Amino acid sequence: MLLDVRNVIRMRTFFLASAGSLVLAGAVMVYSAQTPAQAPQTTPNAQSPAATAPQGGAPGQVASPFGAPAQRSGLNIVVLDPAHGGTDPGARGTGGIRESEIVLDLATQVRRALELEGFQVVQTRLGNENPSFDDRSATANAQRGAVFVTLHISSTGLQGTVRVYANSDLPAVTNSNGLIPWDRAQGPFLGLSKKFGDLVQGMLVQRFKGSPNTAQTAAVRQLRTTAAPAIAVEISSIVVEDRSELDRMAPGIADAVARGAAAFKPSYVVPSTPGALP
Amino acid sequence: MTPRWKFWVITGLIFAVVGAAIYFPILRRRVKRAARLQQQSEEQARRELAQPIASNPSDPRVKTKLFWASDAMDSTLTAVVVELPLASDPVLRSKQVLNTLLAGPVDVELRTLPPDAVLLAFYLLPDGTGIADFSEALATSVPSGIASEQMAVDSIARTLEANVPQVQRLRILIHGQEVETLAGHLDLTGAFVVNTKPVPSTKPAVAAPSADKASAMAPATLTREKAPGKLAQPERKR
């Protein structure tokens, strides 16, 4: 089998043990007619050499459909995942409010707050569609130097509180071939995810009294296949009289996530060797 | 239309509106009551069909810890101690404690599992992995969300941990099938750690034995423990 990967700027390789397959996750370059000199540099980190020099030396300016340039080290990308969508509305509240719609709007506010902190933001969905768990993880796994934040609203819990979850323990990666097993891609990042989660939860508890002081751990399916520091943020709860009660929480959550990511940034150094684990 | 007709039509409409305003709340209450009665009778029928695990009257009555939601702390579990006649066989014992857990606490608000969920089967593998096969209602009726799904699984795991030391890990099936998540969030593809301690050779502490057949399945007095539960950790993902 011959794969043409000339247009792929960030390639990461995973091993899918159950199917005996390799998974190649990559961001695909989109060529523009402009020369590098003509191309506008619109991204916050465009001054980085890595941002304007695509791997592989392909001609012309490149832009990634994920909205982020190639990255060699350091955290500068946040992958935001508004959960559910499409045929899956998620939790449903009184008056027909849907988790999938509220988290999509929340993602917009979180995105703005993150961009103000200098991060580039990639979203797993921008409209009312429902990518699979693996597709959402693939969006994050194609990035280097990224963290992953999935946004949820619970059906239960103390109203007006927010909980952050990191994935619970996964067995250590034992593959000697250097490939990351897709099904346990989160394994090497658990410590970093917990640290990231604690920082965000610490910011949230200052704004939303009654929230836990530290991040919780749970076997969250979405986080397991994500090869990056990854957290789930869950708001309580969809059971509100009026959607505006949840909307009022959005700016505080956006600010807490952005500040948490900024506080986490110095502690996350991405290995410069492709495929290397943190 | 003559002014007289207009008067009668408007008067009639006003009476209709006033009558509706009085009658609709009454109607709504009646519909709600009927729905509640239907739900109760459905649950009753389900429980009768589910055939509770027969307990042997000679089985000793054991202080059994069941983990339901805490009414004091949000999203935590509390152990409630119930005296139940439990079999010594770990599979039968697991079924007995899980069925009692499914039956729910006195306060329905403290439920962790949906009332219409049924334990279809329980298996115990030689390596200590317990496999609990629940009806589809466990997945479809549990409130959607990480916290609520975690509470549901954790109440099962902690109840087994407290009462059946032979169960070291737990896998959950839905209607005989392995499913990716419980209700869209919690990963069910791996096993959850239940008990890391070695299996004790002696039998668990036994309360005063009772041979009273009539009281064998009767609900016992509930005693709340103070310490809230902690969340079980999944051990392995395939």
Describe the structure.
The complex is a heterodimer of chains A (278) and B (238). Chain A has seven helices and eleven strands. Chain A is α/β, with parallel strands linked by helices. Chain A has a six-stranded mixed β-sheet, sandwiched between helices. Chain A has a three-stranded mixed β-sheet with strand order 2-1-9, covered by helices on one side. Chain A has a two-stranded antiparallel sheet with strand order 3-4. In chain A, strand 1 and strand 2 form a beta hairpin. The chains are: A alpha/beta (278), B alpha+beta (238). At the A-B interface, strand 8, strand 10, helix 5 and strand 11 of A face helix 4 and strand 8 of B.
Fraction of residues in H or I helices of chain B: 25-40%
Contiguous helical run count of chain B: 4
User: Using only CA atoms, what is the Rg of chain A?
Assistant: 19 Å
Structural class designation of chain B = alpha+beta
> What is the number of strand segments of chain B?
8
Main sheet of chain B: which strands, in order across? 3-4-5-6-8
The shape of chain B is elongated
**What oligomeric arrangement do these chains adopt?**
heterodimer
Which band does the percent of strand residues of chain B land in?
Answer: 15-25%
